[in-house]
Every structure is written in structure tokens, then in C-alpha cells.
């Protein structure tokens, strides 16, 4: 009788342990560099929401780096359940490998991009070089810090924003190429990713201006203290989308498909959109965007489609080996 009781208790313990295991899952989000603070806050909100609505615990882990480097890491075997990037080409790359659904952009609203951003300039306090617009970046003696377009979406967006700023004023592609070539002659070193660029600018104290995402202003103020930099909004800049997708290979293996979809769905909730706005990511919700009008300065926007056809076409023309960027920039 004792043996039966012990056996019954042991089985009950195993069942309880299994139940707890099922109730508590781990999700890995592979994301781009400058989104780390946003996702830190978002993950806290999501885990509380998920617990409240399902009764289950979930732990969200993060992996950050240059967006293209992250995409390659996932392709090489990083078991991310979801990817949250800053360029569609990085997710299209994963779709081409069969790791993300071919119709990933239709799986969530707004082309599966719950937030947008734009490129602006961070300059040292007081703006000693009097940098106001794109033309100031090609002046002699101005050092520009930017991410390598080959390794990070931040760099590709900066490059396309610079090119598009010429087109926006009525310039030709030839004039845009000349301008971007001059700009990159003022780049002393290419950063690996957005956070590396900020480190070069603020910790290594290299450069006069950093081209980066609008959201990096908040991160800099939090990490280095307010007043270290001034944010300069140029007269025109590129609308950048922040696309998301489920990594089908991983969720099939881990059984986390529903959780991964819930994680990305919640990015469109009012709570998540508010968190995004507080991190200077432009929310898709128009009411919340209007509420934070003081954060999001008016800029004349242009899109990738306006001057480049699509990001995929821009990738082929400008960033693939032997493309326009390789012709304009010589590695120092």
C-alpha cells in the first residue's frame, strides 16, 4: 500500500511539473540594436497581459545586433520565435530561406509593421558645427558616424534617406550619387549596428554628427544623461517601417506558434503603442501619434517606393556586392 501511495504521489508530482512546464514558455525575439529599450518595456507589459488573459507565465528573451547580422544568425540556426526588424529586406531574406512565411507582410496589420521611424541627426550639445540639414554633412571638417549599410538596416536607411533628400529637392540620381559619395568621404569609421554607432559617437568621442533612428534620442538620454546631444530634424527624411514576423521553423519545433502570434499581435494594442511612443517610435494608432505630437517633429517625408521602387530593388542596386554603395565607399 505504501508503494502504491508513493507511486501515486510521484506520478502526481510529474504531472504537476509537466503542467507547470506547459504553462511557462520561453520566447526569443531577435531584434535590431536600437530597439532594446523599447522591447525591455514591451516585454514587461506583454508578460503581464499574457498572464492576465491566459493564466500562463511566459519569459521573453532578447537577442540584439545589426538587423542584417540578426537575420543571418537566425538563418544559421538561432532559434528565435519571432523577428522584429527595421527593414523588410531582412525578413524577406528569411522568407527566401523558408524560415518565415512567404506572405509574412499580410499576417499582421500595416504590412506587418506596428511602428515606423525616420532618420535624423544627433549632434554634440550646442551643435558646435551648426548642422541643420543634409547639405551640412558634406562640408569639409564634418565627421559623420553611420552604420555600415552592409551589416545593419540603420545604415541602409541612413544611406537611402541621404540619397532621397536630394531627389526630394528635385535632384537626379546622378546628383544623389555624387552627394552620398561626398557624405561617405566624411565617414571616419563604419559602425556594425545602431548601438555600436552610438558607442563610437559618445563613448569613443568620434565624429560631429550621428545619423540614426529617431528613437535613439530617448535611448541616449537614458543611458548617457539628458543634454549630451541635440536632436536635429532635417527638412526631409525617409519613412522607415519596423516589420515583424513569426519564425515558422522555430515555432514548429518548440510548439510556440500561438504564443509568438500573440506576442506580435499585442504590439498593435493601445498599451504597446503608448510604450512605442514613449520610446520615440512612431505608433500606427493615429490618436496616440497625435497625443505625442511634441515628440514627433514635422518633417517632409518620402518613402522607399518614391525613389527606389522597393527595398528589395534598393538592396540589389545599392547594397549587394558590387552595387552603388561599393562604388561610392572605399573601406578605410
Account of the 3D structure:
The protein has two domains: 2-113 and 243-291, D-Maltodextrin-Binding Protein, domain 2 (3-Layer(aba) Sandwich); 116-240 and 299-328, 3-Layer(aba) Sandwich (D-Maltodextrin-Binding Protein, domain 2), CATH 3.40.190.10. It contains 16 helices and twelve strands. The protein has helices spanning 2-23, 36-54, 67-75, 88-96, 109-112, 153-168, 173-185, 194-202, 216-224, 248-254, 257-265, 270-278, 286-291, 304-308, 311-319, 324-328; strands spanning 24-32, 57-65, 82-84, 115-124, 144-147, 190-191, 209-213, 229-232, 236-242, 244-246, 282-283, 300-302. Helix 2 (36-54) links the parallel strand 1 (24-32) and strand 2.
Give the termini distance in whole angstroms: 80 Å
Percent helix range: 40-55%
CATH superfamily of the largest domain: Periplasmic binding protein-like II
Quaternary structure annotation = single chain
The stretches of 5 or more residues where confidence is low (pLDDT under 50) are 3-23
* CATH fold descriptor of the largest domain: D-Maltodextrin-Binding Protein, domain 2
Total DSSP helices: 16
User: Any idea of the CATH class of the largest domain?
Assistant: Alpha Beta
Computed structural class:
alpha/beta
Question: Taking all residues together, what is the mean pLDDT?
Answer: 91
The biggest beta sheet is recorded as: 8 strands, mixed
Number of domains: 2
SSE ordering: HEHEHEHHEEHHEHEHEEEHHHEHEHHH
User: Number of DSSP strands?
Assistant: 12
Amino acid at each position: 500500500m505504501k508503494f502504491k501511495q508513493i507511486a501515486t504521489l510521484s506520478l502526481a508530482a510529474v504531472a504537476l511539473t509537466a503542467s507547470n512546464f506547459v504553462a511557462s514558455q520561453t520566447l526569443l525575439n531577435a531584434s535590431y540594436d536600437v530597439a532594446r529599450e523599447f522591447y525591455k518595456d514591451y516585454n514587461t507589459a506583454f508578460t503581464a497581459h499574457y498572464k492576465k488573459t491566459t493564466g500562463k507565465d511566459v519569459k521573453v528573451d532578447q537577442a540584439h545586433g545589426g538587423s542584417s547580422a540578426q537575420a543571418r544568425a537566425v538563418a544559421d540556426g538561432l532559434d528565435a520565435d519571432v523577428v522584429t526588424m527595421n527593414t523588410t529586406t531582412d525578413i524577406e531574406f528569411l522568407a527566401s530561406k523558408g524560415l518565415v512565411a512567404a506572405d509574412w507582410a499580410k499576417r499582421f496589420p500595416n504590412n506587418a509593421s506596428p511602428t515606423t521611424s525616420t532618420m535624423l541627426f544627433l549632434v554634440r550639445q550646442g551643435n558646435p558645427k551648426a548642422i541643420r540639414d543634409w547639405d551640412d554633412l558634406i562640408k569639409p571638417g564634418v565627421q559623420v558616424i553611420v552604420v555600415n549599410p552592409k551589416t545593419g538596416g540603420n545604415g541602409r536607411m541612413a544611406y537611402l534617406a541621404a540619397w532621397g533628400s536630394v531627389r526630394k529637392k528635385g535632384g537626379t540620381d546622378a546628383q544623389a550619387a555624387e552627394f552620398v559619395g561626398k557624405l561617405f568621404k566624411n565617414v571616419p569609421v563604419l559602425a556594425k549596428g545602431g548601438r555600436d554607432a552610438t558607442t563610437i559617437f559618445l563613448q569613443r568621442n568620434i565624429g560631429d554628427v550621428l545619423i540614426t533612428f529617431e528613437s535613439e534620442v530617448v535611448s541616449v538620454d537614458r543611458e548617457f544623461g539628458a543634454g549630451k546631444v541635440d536632436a536635429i530634424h532635417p527638412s526631409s527624411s525617409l519613412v522607415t517601417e519596423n516589420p515583424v514576423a513569426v519564425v515558422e521553423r522555430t515555432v514548429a519545433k518548440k510548439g510556440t506558434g500561438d504564443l509568438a502570434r500573440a506576442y506580435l499581435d499585442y504590439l498593435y494594442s493601445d498599451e504597446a503603442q503608448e510604450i512605442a511612443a514613449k520610446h520615440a517610435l512612431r505608433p500606427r494608432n493615429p490618436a496616440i501619434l497625435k497625443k505625442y505630437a511634441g515628440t514627433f517633429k514635422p518633417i517632409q517625408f518620402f518613402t522607399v517606393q518614391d525613389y527606389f521602387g522597393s527595398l528589395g530593388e534598393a538592396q540589389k542596386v545599392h547594397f549587394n556586392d558590387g552595387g552603388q554603395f561599393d562604388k561610392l565607399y572605399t573601406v578605410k
